[in-house]
Amino acid sequence: MDDAIFLSLRRRANVFKFGTENLLNEYFQAQGKNSFKSAELAQGNVTNFTEYATEKIRESEANNTACIFSSVSKDVTTFNANFDDVQQIENRLLKMHWRDFEYLSSSILETGFDAVDVRTTQSSGDGGVDFEGKILIGSSEAKLRYGEIEVYGQSKKYAGNVGIYDIKSFVAFANSKKRNYVHHPQIFMFFTTSEFASSALKEIEENGFIGLNRSQIALLIYNHRDRLLTRSEVIRTQVLGFIYS
Q1: What confidence score (pLDDT) does residue 230 get?
Q2: Which end of the chain has less Cβ packing within 10 Å, N or C?
Q3: Distance of alpha carbon 241 from its chain centroid, rounded?
Q4: Which string of b and e fits 51-82 if b means at least 16 CB within 10 Å?
Q5: Dihedral sign, CA of 15, 16, 21, 26?
Q6: Crossing angle for the helix pair 214-223 and 98-113, nearest 10 degrees?
């Protein structure tokens, strides 16, 4: 099924809740079917559609991305009211300057993961660190601090997918941080405005890194939008201003 058609129907109606069979009726009409054929197809595809939409929701939850649907049953389909805003953030990430994206990555580390001592590093060669900080380990009840985890991150403002050699370079950097038998607790994160090639994702998983693509970052930004808005003029003007205008 074509999510673009569903999204167009939602925007045209300017509502977020539809009767499922009525939604499918409009969907098939938008595909060019006549009213009689659309009604027939809608009635016969309710179960297929609910399974499709349910899987979309489950997949988005597993991947920490926004889904076009928020809930679905054979009677009612509800669209995600935040989906358009998250998509707008995705589009704005593509237009950012690479250096601004590095500063944004630092802000995400601080606001989205509660890191401290966060900083954006000076421009480095491929494979190096672009932002870093520390995540504190403490008691959830008493405000006691027991340790910290060092976080090292790389940001890539790409048009194409991040490939395996980008990740291998970062792996080499990670290994350099573990020399001389000194093993501080460490997390390595890779943020990109694009996607990861399958081979790159496999390399990330095998090394225990955290890789966030454009869709995942956009949802993080949206969820922490109020705190991020105060971080800098760049975030206000380039990323989040449209929400508050």
Answers
A1: 87
A2: C
A3: 19
A4: eebeebbeebeeeebbbbbbebeeeebbbbee
A5: positive
A6: 50
Tell me which residues of the chain have a pLDDT lower than 70: 123-127, 142, 179-183, 245
User: What are the helix (H) ranges across the chain?
Assistant: 3-13, 20-30, 35-44, 46-63, 83-95, 98-113, 164-176, 198-206, 214-223, 225-229, 233-234, 241-244
| pLDDT given at position 168 | 93
d(C-alpha 166, C-alpha 170), whole Å: 7
Tell me, what's the pLDDT at 123?
59
Q: 39 exposed, middle or buried (CB, 10 Å; 0-12, 13-18, 19+)? A: middle
Residues 38 and 22: their CA atoms lie apart, in Å, by 10
* Bridge-based pairing state of the strands 186-192 and 76-79: unpaired
Residue found under tokens 């399958």: 198
What is residue 179's predicted lDDT score, i.e. its pLDDT?
Answer: 65
Question: How many residues in the chain?
Answer: 245
Cβ atoms within 10 Å, residue 113: 16
Across 130-153, b (16+ Cβ under 10 Å) vs e yields bbbbbbeeeeeeeeeeeebebbbb
**Backbone dihedral angles phi then psi of residue 97, each to the nearest 5 degrees:** -70, 145
Q: Which residue has the tokens 């499709």?
A: 52
Q: Which residues pair with 76 in a beta bridge?
A: 19
- DSSP string of 111-133, one letter each residue: HHH--EEEEEPPP--TTS-SEEE
Of 62, 68, 75, give the one whose Cα is nearest residue 20.
75
